[in-house]
Amino acid sequence: MAKTRSFTIIAQDPSIKDGGQILTAEIHVPYEDLGPGPRGYRAHVVDYDSSQRVLYKPAELGSDALDRFAKATDAKLLSDPAFHAQNVYAIVMRILSRFEFALGRRIAWGFGGHQIHIAPHAFAEANAYYSDDDQSLLFGYFPGHDGKPIYACLSHDVIAHEAAHALLDGIRDCYTLPSGPDQAGFHEGFADTVAMLSVFGLRRIVARLLPDAKGDPTRVDKADLTVEKLKKSALLGLAEQFGREMSAFRDEALRRSMELPPSKDAMTDFSYEECHKRGEILSAAVLNAFVQVWRARLNSWLPTEDKTVHKARVAEDGSDAAEQLLTMLIRALDYCPVVDITYADFLSAVLTADFEMVPDDGTYKYRSLLLEQFEKWGILPASTQHGHREAGAIPDTGAWELPKDAADLQYDGVHLDSLVRDPDEVFRFIWENWRRLGIYEGAHTRVTSVRPCVRTGLDGFVLRETVSEYLQTLDLEAKQLGGFGIEKPKGMPDATPVRLRGGGVLVFDDFGRLKYHVRSRINNAPRQAKRLDYLWRRNIKDRDGRYGFSDGAPRGRRFAMMHLRRAGRLPKEEWRD
Amino acid sequence: MYDVGFGDCFLVSFGYGGGTYRHVLIDCGSSTENKAHMQEVVKQIIGDCGGHLHGLVITHRHEDHLSAFGLKDVGAKLAALNPDVVVQPWTEHPDAKADATSAPSVFTGKALAHQDSLAAAQKFIVQLNENSSKLLRGVGPVTRSALLSAAQASIPNKAAIQQLQDMGKKHAYVYYGSKSGLEAVLPGVEVTVLGPPTLKQSDSIRQQTTSDPSEFWKLRSRLAAAAIEHPLQARGTPLLFPRAPTSSIAASPSYVKWAIEKLDRVNVDNVFQIVRELDKEMNNTSVVLLFEVAGKMLLFPGDAQLENWEYALHDKAVAKRLQGISLLKVGHHGSTNATPKELLWDKLRNRGPKGKRGRLVSLLSTRPGKHHDVPRKSLVTALNDETVLHSTDAWKGKSKPIKETYTL
Question: FRET label pair with B388: which of A130, A511, A574, B244, CA 20 to 30 Å apart?
């Protein structure tokens, strides 16, 4: 049986042409026996158009690993729904396998089922979103300037963006719950970043964005390869292309990210509290670091004597840099707190994940460059911040520190075999070590996952870890907050129901010994006060008027509304009851 | 203020000494009251204005602001008041059609696209209403009724729109900063148009949408067109892929049917969204007028929601001037974002506890239960605590008056 299968996809979107034809790419995804749809073990394309009430015949891509659209004409690519089905299937599976490669394990969807439903022509609406309640990725369509339909399902970054939401939800389902501005911005910012880096992972796309050297379209002037010029040609170039017909689906986040002037006060500036603007900070920091890394890679080989160099070689470095950065960001998710993530936490998680694989920061200094870019936004690794998470720091890396008092942890009666697969065994470990781990005993506590992982570095170095997560909840009335030392938001009535959340990630090494404990203590009063104050000020409550439970979004429409809000299509609230 | 249930109807009369008055009627519509009631209201108006209107302002084209003009006999009686000037938002200009060969200067290509978009979306609502049994197949009665009720306000009242076009001696189609058209009929009164902004104005402060400001409107236009065309395509003749083979839903495996059920529900949610968006868009075409006379300022903002207000309030001089208003017609029947809290309310100088000299007067024409969360309790509480509030909702009992008069 073949190990992988190649599929033709539209590299970016149908408006991007090469030699007069739609720019396509061939991508490889793990082979599987595909039923009609296609329907595989993790994704099932159901081509039902709910606006027209039409079910298109499920695409039969066969089990012979042949790419049926390898030589298809543009007209065929646009008019054959079977190709649209292939395009969404292949891109979603590519993103899924990128996540699985980075994390060294299978990734479950956030809704409990094995297969996500993908509707490539779900409705006549300029929107595309992930709906956990419907276990679906939904892509809309609408007539373009010339009256011809524009399809979200043919846009690589839109598909990658939605798939990233779904996967992030599978890994950290609490990130859709009400928290602070960072968590609200993280879902969008992370999905945007994954989408951009995924597009940059295609060499043909990168090569196409580079300006031609005079008289030779296969080469590029060395003078055009400075950090500033790469930013302009590659990032802003892509942003400009995104701004064409498909902008209805993407809302130009990339352009805005690139144009945001870095500011050290941004994270405390009220205007950056809005979740989309917050999300753009994350993309801005990562994408700027991407260009820096790209340039660092070029520095290692650019000849001093020649004026021009091969575009393909430059593009190769760009897409390799994008791929590697993407791996780092995804890998970080296992080291992220389970609730209330901040950008500072994410930065520490990225640094930890990479530190584990590449202790010396490698040749191109990805970590240093990321640190530098985040710092421009006033974002320092959480582990270096006094009092935060009490995790302390390894000051020169910004990674999470090893647990304090690790030597005192009690392992008696804990079985290694079970510890790597059984939530009850992990709970037993917690039970024996409440105080040593600094976990509050009085809250409802549940171990939600135990995931053994095998990660491979670029140099073949293999890292085995077991990542386990626990969640804590505590339901109170506002008047009880004081008993926990938590300041009640100004003006919040005493009887208001509030939910506090906490939890942590326990990372065990090969020998079942605790290596990291990324904690969000439920009894961390300043954190809880800050969170409740934000929810209260922003009026983020559920439909019963409770704070910290859910954000009150209608069933299945959290991401639909997030995108509409981003496009300014939902009214703002001024008076709240 | 006349009691029209959920709707608006105000007569503003300016005294010119010697018992002479000049009258401006602002809106006359209801989405809850019947024809008999509206007949009674119009009878009152005729009496109050002595059979002639100097000005008529129709803030926007929602049912609850103009329905009386479309009622047989009632509309004719209103027309007989023969207003000297009829004031409407620029979006109502009869030349504002996509196929117009000449248009007033305010109608740029973007503006036409906006018109198109509103018209197309309204068409969608009409069809939704007329074909609800087919389009909302499988939708439960509660959802269906909520959806159709939400859509109702946006169904264009052709008779009323025609009546308005035919009546009056002069028409003014106004926008922020334009003349009101009332200058000649209200000498001594300064009338300032604070909304709606033109697209160019609105786009200049809009940062939430795309960098090409017109995209926002174009998208709407296309979105609305798509929404109309697709559900109403004859079954079996799909627009998207006419030649692609289709499958029978009934004969599909259960796991496909399961997904289809979910998608049908998603579609209803999307239709709801379009209805809500259109409602908001229409509200944002509202004429916002400020009358200033003898040191008093009266603010009538129709149903303007935040996006309409934002342009005017962006201008510091305007925002400062508004701080001193004496009378506020509460926007959009007391909804959540038609009385901008930080930009307007918090800065109003004449708010204050009972007994405050020159305390702000507020007029609220509303009926709870028609629209979700309207009027907002928190807003009504604030109005009660800090203004002299007159609310039609408070006119309870059998001898409920049909109007109340206030003298400033």
Answer: A574
Q: Which residues contact B214 (CB under 8 A, 6 or more apart)?
A: B109, B110, B113, B199, B203
In chain B, where the domains are located:
113-151+214-237+249-280
Give the model's confidence band at A390: pLDDT under 50 very low, under 70 low, under 90 confident, else very high.
very low
Q: What is the pLDDT of residue A143?
A: 67
Mean pLDDT of A206-210: 90
The number of C-beta contacts closer than 8 angstroms across A and B is 179
Residue B343: phi, psi to the nearest 5?
Answer: -75, -30
A56 contacts B244? CB cut-off 8 A: yes
pTM score, whole prediction: 0.81
For tokens 């809000």, name the residue. A565
Tokens of B267: 């579609």
Give the pLDDT band (50/70/90) at residue B120: low
Q: Is B304 helix (H, G, I), strand (E, B) or coil?
A: coil
In this complex, do B263 and A134 lie within 8 Å of one another by their Cβ atoms?
Answer: yes
Best of A41, A50, A145, A236 to disrupt the B interface (most B CBs within 10 Å) is A50
CB-CB under 8 Å, A126 with B222? yes
Query: Per the CB < 8 Å rule, is A50 touching B269?
Result: no
Scanning A63-92 for CB atoms below 8 A from B yields 79-82
Segment B343-370 mean pLDDT: 92
132-171 in A: which are within 8 Å (CB) of B?
A: 134-136, 138, 141-145, 149
| Domains of chain A in sequence order | 7-171 (3.10.170.10), 181-384 (no CATH), 406-564 (no CATH)
Asked if B256's CB is within 8 angstroms of A124's CB, the reply is no
> So what's the ipTM on this one?
0.86
**One-letter amino acid of A361:** D
